[in-house]
Design brief:
Elements lengths: L3 H4 L13 H7 L6 H20 L9 E2 L3 E2 L20 H32 L12 H10 L6 H10 L18 H12 L4 H8 L3 H10 L1 H36 L14 H23 L13 H5 L15 H7 L1 H18 L5 H20 L13 H6 L14 H5 L4 H21 L16 H8 L3 H14 L4 H5 L6 E5 L2 E8 L5 E8 L6 H11 L1 H10 L9 E4 L2 E4 L9 H8 L18 H12 L13 H9 L5 H22 E2 L5 H12 L3 H9 L8 E2 L27 E4 L3 H14 L5 H19 L5 H12 L18
Parallel strand pairs: 8-10
Antiparallel strand pairs: 1-2, 3-4, 4-5, 6-7, 9-10
Helix pairs in contact: 4-19, 4-20, 5-19, 7-8, 7-10, 10-18, 11-14, 13-14, 15-18, 20-22, 20-24, 20-25, 28-29, 30-31, 30-32
């Protein structure tokens, strides 16, 4: 047994012989569930089979001379009753139908469009299949019942010259969003690589490749952004050069910077002038930056500053003896040391003059080439990349190779220069390509390609798309779900006057053929909906018929990955009825979202609606079932309890009203009482008046029609004029009969002491309840008191006659 671990969680039972009487009795409890009772039944069956094969294979105490054979019965208690599966309420049913109708609209439009396309392809004047698109060739193959394998589809792609596309990696234009087009084109125009763009936007490589090959919007934006980017780099280069010229002019010291020096020594005055010139230039550079053309002219050590030579600035080299100048010119040397420290913090302590000069020279040359468009300065087969720029070598123009170290690009000193070089390279490449009249980018047209599964969906709905059709049909047709799944394409017959016969088979009844008369018309009727399903699945039927499939004549045919087959509404991972609720929000009566639908409840929903519409008529449900099955399986539902309660209340109300009308307790005139009684009972006024006046009295009541009794033949006298009068429609009760009613009630109470309780409840209790609960409460306390005095006093000259048939006489 697969559930043995649940019965025996500690795994103490290792063999059939350990399933003894004690274990079975521990499972046999009075309040078992249906599942527990079923498990006990399975154990009994297993033990019986084991004992039949080998008597010594089971426990010895299962057969006891005193207690008897334990395997002779299943349980000491009655089998637990199963709770019937309830119907869906009108609120939930309406949600299911609305959600299903919303889903079937696009399916109808798509399949009808695919059928029209197939019809055009099958016309004689259509071109040969060799020049058709892969989708059209796949469509023709599927329509002829030939499933399309991946190898066949790949051949169709190759024939259509779709070399970039494959069966597994094809992407359509709809997969490229507008936001991705805008962002990707802007980043690529700014110099980003494809890998960086893909990581930044989190898109796949095939999407980005499809932008370059099949997306004209992307290429148009990219061209526009590239043009704007080149113009921005050119303007930025001109602006930077103008700023460098202004910085260069500001950096030139005055002619006589040391005119205010009062020291008499000419050497001291010349040294002070040189120090102040250096200090003037360094302060300008520290404040506004170093001109790119002067990058690498010096490092920012104090000794390097002392030996610096720049004729344009009037700076001549000095003795590099730092201590000599610090003693002779302490203030100037202190200021130079301060500015040198600031420049060192900004540009790096170990500023390599040779590397800085080479880098600046290459960047200045790129700027000159861009502004002057001197393309002859570029070497042949120049690679417009940062690596190509680093490898660029032309000693005749003082251009040398640079290190390709990764730190060079990310270094805080050279990083801005490297980024500047990348921008210039990108702008030169774009401008150079435009000047060489290279062909512009053109988007290759998207070839009409779909996967075989997508093509199959054009001819027939999928299993998930047939689910809403089944939901609607199950909620408007009273055929059970298992029979609906096996409907055949010839299930409709004898359509007339808005109705049609639906033929179906019941698997639980040996596939017996049944016929159900249902409404016919639009898709809101069972007949119209089945005709729509026949139309949508007709291409699949033709394809399966061409291939000789044994399921070709079934109604529910669905498209799958590469062909068509019978839809069973089953899935090994996730049920289609669960996925229906995933796509649509269905709220239950308690306000919770439904995780999935139970199609076995559809028929009960239809029956419950029919039962409610008929006002609780059980015979309305017994048109295709016996009375007992209709009552127990379709009327006895939790959702119909309110209807049953209302019926009981209504019946009791009618009974009480009828009883109240037959009790004549007031002091009104007899004619008025007779008129009201005639209106309530439908009897003639003369008969009612005679009964009220006492001319038609029997032992316990008055009779309005003694010769038309429900217990005898019409025209004959009533054969049971005694206790049956309490429950007869002809009996009325007046104050004259109160003594006899009280005498009879007293006898019924005494009789309870002498007969068995079950006998008394069956024979005598209904009469006592009728008297005490329905008749006596209609009379006043004074009337009952007078009648009590009569039956207990000496004036009681009207003793009660007891017929021998009642069984109360001595």
């Amino acid at each position: 047994m697969s559930s043995m671990d649940k019965i025996d969680p500690e795994q103490q039972i290792q063999s059939v012989a350990q399933l003894d009487r004690t274990f079975l009795d521990s499972m046999d409890q009075p309040a078992m569930s249906v599942s527990q009772w079923s498990k006990l039944c399975i154990l009994i069956v297993v033990l019986r089979a084991a004992r039949k094969m080998s008597p010594h294979a089971v426990a010895a105490n299962l057969t006891d001379t005193t207690l008897g054979d334990r395997l002779a019965y299943t349980s000491r208690y009655q089998k637990p009753a199963t709770s019937p599966r309830d119907a869906y309420s009108a609120y939930v049913t309406r949600q299911i139908q609305e959600a299903a109708k919303a889903e079937i609209g696009p399916v109808i439009e798509r399949v009808r469009g695919g059928a029209a396309r197939l019809k055009d392809l099958q016309k004689p004047h259509v071109s040969q299949p060799a020049i058709l698109s892969p989708a059209d060739r796949t469509l023709l193959d599927l329509a002829q019942g030939r499933p399309v394998a991946p190898a066949v589809f790949s051949r169709y792609l190759r024939d259509a010259r779709c070399t970039v596309l494959t069966f597994r990696s094809y992407i359509t234009g709809a997969d490229i969003g507008d936001d991705a087009i805008i962002h990707a084109s802007h980043l690529i125009a700014s110099g980003w690589t494809k890998d960086d763009v893909r990581k930044e936007l989190r898109i796949s490589r095939r999407v980005l490749d499809a932008m370059f090959t099949h997306c004209p919007e992307f290429l148009d934006r990219l061209s526009r952004y590239e043009t704007e980017s080149v113009a921005a780099v050119v303007d930025g280069t001109k602006r930077r050069r103008a700023e460098d010229e202004e910085l260069w002019e500001a950096s030139i010291p005055p002619v006589q910077i040391g005119d205010d020096i009062d020291k008499p020594t000419e050497l001291w005055r010349r040294q002070e002038d040189q120090l102040r010139r250096r200090l003037h230039v360094l302060r300008i550079w520290d404040d506004k930056g170093i001109p790119l053309s002067r990058f690498g002219d010096l490092s920012f050590g104090v000794r390097s500053i002392l030996t610096w030579e720049e004729p344009v600035f009037g700076i001549a080299p000095l003795n590099r003896n730092f201590y000599t100048y610090r003693r002779a010119h302490p203030e100037s040397m202190m200021d130079i040391t301060t500015v040198a420290r600031s420049l060192t913090a900004r540009y790096g302590k170990y500023f390599r003059q040779d590397l800085a000069k080479k880098t600046a020279t290459k960047v200045l040359e790129l700027e000159r080439i861009l502004l002057q468009e001197d393309w002859s300065a570029l070497p042949p087969n120049f690679h417009f990349s940062f690596t190509g720029w680093l490898q660029w070598d032309d000693p005749s123009r003082s251009i040398h190779k640079l290190s390709s170290s990764g730190l060079f690009v990310n270094d805080k000193r050279y990083g801005p220069i490297a980024k500047r070089a990348k921008e210039l390279l990108r702008a030169i490449e774009l401008k150079y390509r435009a000047l060489r009249s290279e062909p512009a980018r053109h988007a290759a047209p998207l070839v009409d390609i779909m996967r075989p599964s997508e093509v199959a969906r054009m001819l027939c709905p999928t299993m998930d798309e047939l689910t809403p059709f089944m939901a609607i049909l199950g909620l408007i047709c009273q055929i059970d779900y298992s029979s609906l799944k096996t409907l055949r394409r010839d299930c409709l017959e004898s359509s007339a006057n808005g109705y049609v016969n639906i033929k179906y088979r019941k698997s639980r009844d040996n596939d017996r053929l049944y016929t159900q008369r249902e409404r016919d018309g639009g898709i809101d009727t069972p007949g119209g909906l089945i005709r729509l399903i026949l139309e949508l699945t007709e291409p699949a039927h033709i394809a399966l018929k061409s291939s000789g499939d044994r399921h070709q004549d079934y109604l529910w045919l669905a498209s799958y990955r590469a062909g068509f087959r019978l839809c069973t509404f089953q899935h090994p991972v996730r049920h289609p009825w669960w996925r229906f609720c995933d796509r649509n929000i269905i709220i239950s009566d308690d306000g919770k979202m439904l995780d999935g639908l139970e199609p076995s409840r559809f028929r009960k929903t239809v029956k419950a609606h029919k039962y409610t519409k008929s006002g609780g008529d059980i015979f309305a449900l017994a048109d295709d079932h016996s009375y007992a099955v209709a009552r127990d399986h379709y009327a006895n539902l939790p959702s119909l309890e309110e209807l049953h309660d209302e019926a009981v209340v209504s019946g009791l109300g009618h009974a009480l009203a009828d009883a109240a009308a037959r009790v004549i307790a007031g002091n009104e005139p007899p004619s008025k009482q007779a008129a009201r009684l005639s209106e309530a009972t439908g009897q003639p006024f003369a008969s009612c008046l005679a009964a009220i006046q006492g001319s038609e009295d029997v032992w316990l009541a008055g009779c309005v029609s003694f010769h038309s009794s429900p217990f005898g033949l019409p025209g004959e006298a009533c054969p049971a004029p005694f206790s049956e009068c309490l429950h007869c429609n002809n009996g009325i009760f007046t104050s004259r009969k109160l003594p006899n009613l009280l005498r009879y009630a007293c006898i019924l109470r005494e009789r309870r002491q002498t007969v068995h309780e079950d006998v008394w409840r069956t024979i005598y209790k209904p009469d006592l309840d009728r008297i005490e609960l329905q008749i006596l409460p209609q009379f006043t306390a004074e009337q009952i008191a007078r009648a009590t005095t009569v039956i207990h006093g000496a004036a009681d000259h009207d003793p009660l006659f007891m017929p021998p048939s009642v069984g109360l006489t001595s």
